[in-house]
Amino acid sequence: ARYGDMCCDVLSLAEWEGHELKSFQITYIQEAKFGDNLTILRSHITGDGVMVRGQDGEKVFFEASLNFRKR
Fold first, then answer.
1. What 3-state class would DSSP assign to 1?
2. Residue 32 phi, psi (nearest 5)
3. Can you tell me the distance from the alpha carbon of 56 to that of 16, in angstroms, rounded to the nearest whole number?
4. CA pair distance 65, 4, nearest whole angstrom
5. DSSP readout, 9-64?
6. pLDDT tens-digit profile, the chain (71 residues)
7. Radius of gyration over every alpha carbon of the chain, rounded to an integer in angstroms
8. Whole-number Å distance between alpha carbons of 69 and 35
9. pTM for the model
10. Helix (H, G, I), strand (E, B) or coil at 67
11. What is residue 4's three-state secondary structure?
């Protein structure tokens, strides 16, 4: 559940305006362990949505896509 919250939190309130979450897909690659430095990366918003990745250097923990529909 925390990874899902992190994915939604990468968008500002202004970016959420006018968009509604249509679907959310997350792929868990490996578990982040205590001491890992989790960095959250995101793409630019496109007409379809945004891509999000959680990683520590070259170690990827998850990748997700948030797909939107216009309100």
1. coil
2. -80, 135
3. 27
4. 10
5. HTS-HHHHTTEEEEEEEEEE-S---TT---EEEE----SSEEEEEEEETTEEEEEE
6. 688 999 999 999 998 888 899 999 999 999 999 999 999 999 999 888 999 999 999 999 999 999 998 77
7. 13
8. 37
9. 0.87
10. strand
11. helix
